Amino acid sequence: MRYEEFKALRLRVLQPEGVERFGIDAILLADFASRRLHKSDRLLDLGTGSGIVALLLLARGISYAAGVEIYPPAAEAARENARINSLPLEVFSGDLREELPFPEKSFDLAVANPPFFPAGSESPLPGRTLARSDRTCSFRDVTRAASRRLKNGGRFYAVYRPERLTDALCAMREEGIEPKRLRPAAHDAGKAPFLILIEGKKGAKPGLIFDPLLTLDGDEMREICAVRHFAM
After folding, report:
1. Domains and CATH numbers, the chain
2. One pLDDT digit (tens) per residue for the chain, 232 residues
3. Using CA atoms, how far apart are residues 176 and 138, in angstroms rounded to an integer?
4. Residues near 212 by Cβ (< 8 Å), separated by ≥ 6?
5. Which of 1, 60, 170, 210 is least buried, going by the fewest C-beta atoms within 10 A?
6. Is the Cβ–Cβ distance between 16 and 1 less than 8 Å?
7. What's the predicted TM-score (pTM) here?
């Protein structure tokens, strides 16, 4: 059994075989969303996987998180991770495109690390296909689910590929979540971004700002990863 330990947050995350392992995109998404947290925030994690993003935000002090996960082994891993860390993550097995067991406008923020690749990027491993291919879950699907359940003024955070950014921003605006902040991430300052971190606000007026480039070889990235320790 593989796990990762976040010592500064006293958090241990199990990653069972057959469940898609989280990567740097999830770590960056959690850090991006954590900059504007309030203790009273209620979080909806759409496509929670093993629960990593929700758990990192709960460990930083928010009051409650609900996760939605379509792949049963991943949902069970998220429940186990919530249990071993004694954190209030409630995990629902189901399809975020269908009716969910939450009242509308009941969350302060929503996060999503949606599939990056278009249909046709399937893997022989079912968990990987669900995590990586938008055949069963598109960015628009995620945005629509978030918009329905966010309060007015609620925040939406996602991470996506630069080449598909136009699709993401159009989907957000059309679903009532205005794009407000973008941050590109690159391996170093001389390379093109490979990820875009996105913040939106439900019902907000237009107005988009860019944060400085985040480089994986920079001091800020070392600070982000200072809480992360690999273990087997």
Report:
1. 2-231 (3.40.50.150)
2. 576 888 778 899 988 888 888 989 999 999 999 988 999 999 999 999 999 999 999 999 999 999 999 999 999 999 999 999 999 999 999 999 999 999 999 999 999 999 866 655 555 555 555 555 576 789 999 999 999 999 999 999 999 999 999 999 999 999 999 999 999 999 999 999 999 999 999 999 999 999 999 999 999 998 887 765 443 3
3. 16
4. 183
5. 1
6. yes
7. 0.91
